[in-house]
Recover the amino acids of this structure.
């Protein structure tokens, strides 16, 4: 049953065939009466299969680039609300070739903001906690909306730049925008290059998981469905011009995550290999989502990380046909880097 019966927005979601974008699309269609149009370039990280079996009367898909001004304008003309997930987002790729990150994350966001300005559309921008840099492992602090930006990679610096563009368009041109910075997502439909699905699919394929360096680096994990519910809450009740941090108090070291995956999947906790650490690997991310919870009353469904991880493992076990086509190429790439 939709939470908002009788109300129907025309929602445009950029990057809606990606991991967190496709989860958001499904969440919206399950919980509202909204119509959703997805604009996605379908790079390697976008997968049309992630949007399979959605209701044809409430969902449209357009393949295209967010830097295409004419296309963007035509889609904004038919929408009343825009949620911007589209981004180049893989840190390792940004170190190998930063240009696509500048094109999509900076130029693409600028193109969307100009369309939001032209058509006076409600605009929500999805960002990352990586714009804040990292924290020491023994630092009791967590990121807040007031934490200064300190990005450490081409990926995080271009996301920081896109955030600043949104803030400038709000202040300079009155664009009705909000921003959310989220911690690390996990859940269904995540590409097998990413940390959690890579370890899960390795075990399913009979291979050992691989852990960067000592595995002491800490990430603050949130299930993609919780991220989606937070974004929908901000769309409905968030204050224009504000930034909201989204997190579920899911701090875990990479080592703990790998060992938990192995334990849930019935393997010895030490059945993994250490590989060379990533260049510039941030130490720790941690989100303080007090503003979101206090002002908007949001709470995560998967406050228990182990329960969320178990449901994620079940999804990958049951959807081998979704992830298997990308697995061989992904492992070949990592093997070439000794990872």
């Amino acid at each position: 049953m939709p939470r908002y019966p009788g109300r129907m927005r025309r929602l445009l979601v950029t990057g809606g065939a990606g991991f967190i974008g496709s989860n958001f699309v499904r969440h919206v269609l399950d919980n509202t009466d909204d119509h959703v149009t997805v604009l996605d370039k379908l790079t390697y990280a976008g997968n049309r299969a992630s949007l399979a079996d959605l209701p044809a009367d409430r969902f449209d898909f357009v393949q295209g680039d967010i830097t295409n001004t004419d296309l963007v304008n035509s889609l904004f003309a038919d929408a009343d609300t825009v949620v911007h997930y589209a981004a180049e987002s893989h840190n390792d790729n940004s170190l190998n070739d930063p240009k696509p990150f500048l094109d999509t994350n900076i130029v693409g966001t600028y193109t969307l903001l100009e369309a939001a300005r032209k058509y006076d559309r409600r605009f929500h921008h999805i960002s990352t906690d990586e714009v804040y840099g990292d924290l020491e492992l023994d630092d009791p602090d967590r990121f807040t909306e007031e934490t200064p930006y300190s990005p450490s990679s081409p990926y995080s610096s271009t996301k920081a730049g896109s955030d600043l563009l949104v803030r400038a368009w709000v202040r300079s041109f009155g664009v009705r925008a909000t921003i959310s910075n989220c911690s690390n997502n996990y859940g269904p439909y995540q590409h097998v290059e990413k940390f959690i699905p890579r370890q899960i699919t390795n075990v399913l394929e009979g291979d050992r998981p691989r852990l960067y360096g000592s595995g002491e680096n800490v990430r603050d994990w949130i299930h993609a469905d919780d991220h989606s519910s937070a974004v929908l809450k901000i769309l409905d009740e968030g204050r224009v011009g504000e930034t909201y941090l989204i997190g579920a108090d899911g701090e875990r070291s990479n080592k703990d995550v790998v060992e938990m995956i192995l334990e849930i999947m019935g393997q010895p906790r030490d059945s993994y290999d250490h590989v060379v650490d990533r260049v510039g690997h941030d130490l720790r991310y941690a989100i303080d989502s007090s503003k979101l919870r206090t002002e908007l009353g949001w709470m995560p469904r998967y406050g228990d990380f182990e329960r969320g991880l178990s449901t994620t493992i079940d999804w990958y076990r049951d959807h081998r046909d979704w992830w298997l086509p990308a697995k061989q190429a992904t492992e070949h790439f990592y093997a070439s880097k000794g990872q």
About this structure: The CA atoms of residues 128 and 181 lie 4 Å apart. The two ends are 45 Å apart (CA to CA). Residues 99-119 form the longest helix (21 residues). The mean pLDDT is 93.
